Each structure stands twice: as structure tokens, then as C-alpha cells.
User: Fold these one by one.
Assistant:
Number 1:
Amino acid sequence: MNYNQDTADTIETIHAFLSPLPRPSVHPEHFSSEYTILIATLISLRTKDRVTEQAASRLFTLAATPREMVRLPLERIEDAIYPAGFYKTKAANILAISRILLQQYGGRVPKDREALLSLPGVGIKTANLTLSLGYGLPYICVDTHVHRIANRLGWIRTKAPEQTETALMRVVEKKWWIPINHILVIFGQKVCRPVSPLCSSCPVSATCPREGVITHR
Ligand code: SF4
């Protein structure tokens, strides 16, 4: 691997600037099993952090294991996770996933990315977050914030988030693979925003090439 010291310094600087980091909506301290991390990550897609936390807590009070979940009627799951985005589809997927885990994996979440990706509603982001937060495996969870910021900083040049994970693995030291998602999501919400980033108050503005940035404040 060809790690880049400038990249490491930039991550250190952003991390220090944001400290103490607020806790993410999906975090092992909050959701203590691989199963609850997987389900909470599903709920979090296209949903605000606060809504995710409340929806997941309501659901896990009713059922926190696949065996408990399959005993719930679909409507009960829908009610528990409402108003998460696409709550009806997510509820159906949660039920289907729970059945598959019981039938094919002995009620356990598979520790394997391909197996996770075969579950209904599970994409690369959900699979990587489950493997990294649930099992501590070194995967980079790429969402729109990570993709946008890594490109603006000039670390990588990728068109789609799907290409970004592999590209980042070449330039980011392994110790940052798991935390980089949380750091850049918070940084993307507070400073390097999607539209008109706050470059004037950014801790790395002196070295950032601002690739693709048209307007900034
Ligand atoms: S200088 Fe601007 S574009 Fe670069 S990381 Fe900071 S906020 Fe983002």
C-alpha cells in the first residue's frame, strides 16, 4: 500500500478540530450487537441521525434479536421505525433479513461482505459499517460526505462513491479506515458542506486544493 503522509496529517488535523466528536447515530456503545448495528444502519439510510436513534431504540425495545423480530407483525415494525425514510420498505427488509439470518446463519450476522450484500436492502455502505463497527474489521464506509470531501481535498479522483472505497484504501493509513466515516460525516455536516463549504473557517484550508468547489464561504 502507498499511504500518503499529507493525507494522514489532514485527517489528524480535522479530527483534532472536531474533538470531542459527537457520537454517531449508529455506534457500538448504543447498539451492542452486530445484529442491532446492521438493523440500525438500515434504518439510518436517508434518515436524520436523531430520527434514526429514536426509531432504532423503539424497535430494539420490542425486539433486539432475529428470533424476537420475526415474532413481530410487519405493521408493528413499521410503526416503531416511523418516520424513518422509506420506513415501509425498511420494515419489510428487516423482517426478511431476520428470517434469512435464522434460516441460513443460525441467527448470527455473517462476517462476510458478499453474504451481507445478498441480504435485502443491504448495500456496500451498510455492509461495511456492519463489518467495521460490529466486527471491528478494517473496511472504509463511504457515503456522500466521504466521497465528496476526499475528492475536494485531492486525495482521490473518483466519479462515484462505489469507486472511492478502493481508491481511499491506497492513500489512507489502515488505522483510519474505520473512524474516517464518522470524522468526515461530521466534518461534512459542519464545515465542508455539500453546497458552499465554509472554507474560511476550515482547519485545512491552507493545503486544500478545493477540487470541484465552485462557491465557498
Ligand atoms: S478548504 Fe473548503 S473544500 Fe477544502 S476541506 Fe475545507 S471546507 Fe472543504
Note: The longest helix spans residues 87-105.
Number 2:
Amino acid sequence: MASLDEIFDTVADSRIFKEREKLLPDYIPDKLIHRDKEITRLAHTLAVALRGERPNNVFIYGLTGTGKTAATKLVLRKLAEKAFSRGVKLYVAYVNVRQRDTPYRVMSDIAEAVGVRVPFTGLSTGEVYRRFVLRARKMRGVMIIVLDEIDFLVKKHGDDILYKLVRVNEDLGGNFKVSLIGITNSVSFVENLDPRVKSSLGEEEIVFSPYNAAQLRDILEERAREAFKPGVLDPDVIPLCSALAAREHGDARRALDLLRVAGEIAERRGESRVTRSHVMLARLEIERDRVVDVVKTLPLHSKLVLAAIVEATGGGRRTATTGEVYDLYKQYVSELGLEEVTFRRVSGIIGELDMLGIIRARTVSRGRYGKTRQIELAADPDPVVLVISEDPIISRIAEKLGASHGGSDSV
Ligand SMILES: Nc1ncnc2c1ncn2[C@@H]1O[C@H](COP(=O)(O)OP(=O)(O)O)[C@@H](O)[C@H]1O
Ligand SMILES: [Mg+2]
């Protein structure tokens, strides 16, 4: 093991990074290449705020990592600077509703952006809204409210608050005007919205399409120039990160993560160059973290079904059928003294695990015996077992899981 002294010195005198922060997901570069069209469009829409008009509401959608958040924040930052230099009253509330995940928190952030002080608890959301309106009626100017990852809020709490917000101008009297930007990674979510919310929020729609490998390469080149010391990246590192991320629906966040983690691994090992093999290791590390995050948040019975899949597939060495998985699941449930869910529900859980990419389930025909599903583990079994065994309820049967997945002979 390296001494602490050595660890601190290697990191402090990094031979790899100039400014690692430039690769972190929340850093917004000053220029976003390959997003000119979307940025120009958003800027044109919002620019009318500079002459005191209410911009159209905007609905922005596209898959994760296509630059929606970065582009929106960039445009708003520049708009706010412009408004300031021209003495225009502009208020911006940016709310990531995945992090601020209740209507109360969202409404508090909005109210605080116009100077209302809201206690952590103790008021109803309606009361916070009322205080916001009361204050805003006495003000002049334009306010732009961004609700990022809006699908999370609606999935959890319905669209009541959106319904209220798209009509807020009716409560405001006219000197203070609010416009909304809704951002979502989920296109199907849009279909399920209340039609009135949908049409109001969608006064303008901007779609962010996925980046291809060549575009990702340009993006990484740009960011790498700021983040790494000159010459430390092997020439095939950026193309590899881009190609891997392009396969995952053109996700720039994934591409940047790969590049950053590859650099971190090289640094940790005290090496002076970042190579292909660091990228491949980074991919494993990121995937492992993702699996851990996903499995951690699964409900109890989903974890039990997943545990049954791990055992039934011998830790991922073979496929299993829904029947086999169900039998094992029932066994666990009875050992733990829990109430079991139906076969149908277990089938549903298997479908959900498949969507999360933890397993793969494929329907196959067995001739006159009907159909069954062939289930295999898609994720590395080690982190799966580790996280499942940490569940305080399941930990009582965890030894079994470890044994079934066969520690030593699974390389
Ligand atoms: N065109 C681009 N140029 C530079 N960095 C980009 C570009 N598009 C996205 N990024 C970066 O990729 C990451 C993901 O972008 P983000 O805006 O968070 O995606 P989304 O909100 O669509 O999920 C962020 O770190 C962002 O800065
Ligand atoms: Mg985003």
C-alpha cells in the first residue's frame, strides 16, 4: 500500500489533470459545440424578456446527456448578464425537481427567487404559492422558471403543481410575468400529461437529439484541453470514450465520465499517461457504480426476485426460467416469514429489472408447452449480491446468496 504521504503527493502534483473539475457533470463550459441550433432557438425565444415581454413557455426534451441542462443554463446565464447590463428586471428560478422532489420544495425555490422567505416546513404548498403571488403582484419584471427533469415530479406527485404554474399569470395582474421552461429526459412522459398543461408548456418545443460518435469526439477534445495536462492522453483514448458513449444513445455525460474516471485511474496508479486500458477499467468501474445505485433503491420484493435470479442462474453462468425464479423467490419469502406477491407480480418485476438493464429476459416458445421467459443476469453478480445482502431484512439469508453465486470459481 502506498503511504499517505505518497498518496497526497501524487494527487497534489497530478501529472494527469490540469483542472479535473472541467470534466464534472455540473460544470457548464462557455461554449457548447454541436448545439448551435438549439441554443439559438432558445435564446431567440427568451430574448423578448429583455424588452419586458413574457417569453413563450418552452418544453425541452431529449435523452439523457444530450446537453439540455447545460444549454439551458448557459443561455440563462448569458441572458441574466445581458439583463443586468441593460438594467432589465429579470428573475430566474432553476429547479432540478429530481433533487427538489416535492411540490413544496419546488414552490419554495420559486418563491425564494423573488425574495420570499419560506420555512423548511410548517406551511402548505398552497400557502407558499399564495405568498409568492402576493409578493410578485407588487413587483415588475419577467421571471423564467426552469423545471428540470420534470418527469420525476409528475411521476411522484402528479401534475397539480404544473397545472397551477402554467396559469400563474392569471393571478399576477400583468406587471410581473412568468414563463416556464420544462425539461424532460423522457419523451413518453409528455404523452401522459394533462392536455392543458401539455399545450401550455409546449408553446415552443425544442428537441435535443443524441450526439453521434464524431460529435462526442469534438466535445471531449474541447473539454480535455481544459482538463488534462498537455499530451497525457493517448491518441485513441478520446475516440474510444466517444465510441462507447455513442453506443449508449449518444450520452455526453457518459463520455465525459469515462474520460474523467480513466484519468483518475491513471492518476491513482501513479502513471503519467492515460491509455485505452484505463478507459476499459473506467467502464467497469462506472457500470459497477450504476449497478450498486440501481439495486440499492429497489423495493424489497424486487431485491428478492433479483436474489432468486442470481441463485437460479448460478451467479450468471446460465439462464433460468420464470418458474425457477418464482420457486426460489417463494422459498426466500417463506424463510423470511414475509407475505409473498403473486406470480404475475414477479413476472412484472422481472420486466422492470430487464428495463433497468440488470437482467435480460427473453420470451421463448416451448412449442406445445406454451411460452416461457429465459432470464439471464446482465450485470456483474458481485456488486448485485453485495448490495442485496446489505438489506437489513434480506441479510438473514444472505449467506445462501453468497454461496450460490459461488465466490471462488466465478472469475
Ligand atoms: N455540446 C457540448 N459541449 C460540451 N459539453 C457538453 C455538450 N453537451 C453536453 N455536454 C456535457 O455533457 C454533460 C451532460 O449534459 P447535460 O446538459 O447535463 O445533459 P442532459 O441535461 O440532456 O441530460 C454535462 O457535463 C455537459 O456539460
Ligand atoms: Mg439534465
Note: Residues 211-294 form a domain with the Helicase, Ruva Protein; domain 3 fold (CATH 1.10.8.60).
